[in-house]
Amino acid sequence: MKEYFLLFISAIFVNNIVLAQYLGNCPFIGTSKKISVAIGMGSAVVFVATMSASITWAVQEYLLDPMGLQYLQTLTFILVIASLVQFVEMFLKKAVPPLYKSLGIFLPLITTNCAVMGIAIICQREEFSFIKTVAFSFACGMGFMLALIVLSAIRERIEVSRTPKSMKGTPIALIMAGLMSLAFFAFKGMI
Amino acid sequence: MSKLWKEFSKGLWKDLPPFKVVLGLCPVLAVTKTADNGFGMGLAVIFVLTMSNVLVSIFRKIIPPKVRIACFIVIAASLVVSVELLMQAFAYPLYQQLGIFVPLIVVNCIILGRAEAFASKNPILLSAVDGLGMGIGFTISLTLLGGIRELFGYGTLFGTRIMPEHYKPFSFMVEAPGAFVCLGLMLSAMNIFTSWQARRKGQAVLDNPGHECRSCGICSR
After folding, report:
1. Contact A114 B178 (CB under 8 A)
2. When comparing pLDDT for B205 and A163, which is higher?
């Protein structure tokens, strides 16, 4: 139990997927202008990352490893993720229309989100068991969501304050992300 | 000939990734601890980008529009797999340094963005030149960013010592926060330069380029 707790804390705070491991930066900067958008994108990432990490784990374990096709990992994983995203989109559209309305526009963005594929690959490189893969990918998704929501809250404030003209938009967002990442460094001592 | 040069030089200045077209940030931030790593990553991206543009352009009439994104991804992914194998064979230290970011070239928005916005509409030679120009621009940016971070963070450049002996390395620059701050400052310097240039020419000063995937049509299906 303690092991899983540490895994959670380390994935969310210490090795935050965006702020310490540099994954998923494009959506991190791109969809952090408004809190509502950030919440939608964050929950879509949590959902898809957990599902894709568990499915790619099964694919690696039962398909690629027995056949000795490890070198096809990249190709298989991206195909699995792309088709999964498409499938989830179709399923939500039919089965849960309200959820589709809030998450739908973010789903296509997720195919090219390196956080999702990155989490799947990290789970393979660390050779996690299935339960650990699910827990780790969920925690990483939560870490992404946390960072995204905090940055979007900061950016909503910055929008109305005075910033140098050349800094408006992306540059100041990147610098804020840098300061956040510095703050998250403080968690390094926790574990 | 002039058309070819126009497509080539576009990637070197007018649409220079990631400063003018803010795309593909993850490798930009992650692998630029040293100028070497940035350069190596850039070379891998040049190869994948040029080849994927060529292949997409060859197959552009066969690929059905509805499943085009999936086709582009398969093309990019097979090229990335070959880069991975080549790097393992000939540049293993670099492969270990870049780590997880080699397979992640496949989800780099620049590659899918160029396939969607340019290669799927243009003939082979033009697409190849476009990919080459964008790739070289990306490499220059990565090497520049890597050089700055390495110079201040370790006091070296491409592994040789530049700073005087008593220089105390500013290790903030080679950690994650430094990457964000450094890229932010460089983007703002670029904005200052662009608006200065526009004012000198007497043109209207444009707004800063936002992080909009303007050359990438994937999300607007």
Report:
1. no
2. A163
